[in-house]
Amino acid sequence: MRTIFCVLATLMLGLTSLQAQSLKAIKLNAPDKTRGASVMKALADRHSEREFANKKLSQQDLSDLMWAAIGINRKDGKRTAASALNKQDVDVYVLMEEGAYLYDPKAHQLNPVAEGDHRPLIGGKQTSVNSAPAC
Hints:
By secondary structure, the protein is α+β, with helices and mostly antiparallel strands. It has one domain: NADH Oxidase (3-Layer(aba) Sandwich), CATH 3.40.109.10. It is built from four helices and four strands.
């Protein structure tokens, strides 16, 4: 847990000012709010995965995950994930092979933060994370 916090703090403080030059922002598709199973089925099926497919997430999957994590789901700007006093002080970073991105809920896009593969920095002893399509 300490390692994850240190890595995220480094990314937020040190790398956000160094916009990755060759990486471009990834404009995400509109989230598909009709897909998926019921909440109860999703909770029943929840588990930790240790093996990952060797393929990238589709743009739609990435879009839906970002929206579900902290996207805007109301006209007044409130988010899918609740926050204390509606402070909305949570940021979601996505680490992929080509680089690290910060999710912008208002634009519904991933903004580049740092080039390169930073996935091994957050896995700690869970080496399966090093090759996951996205962290």
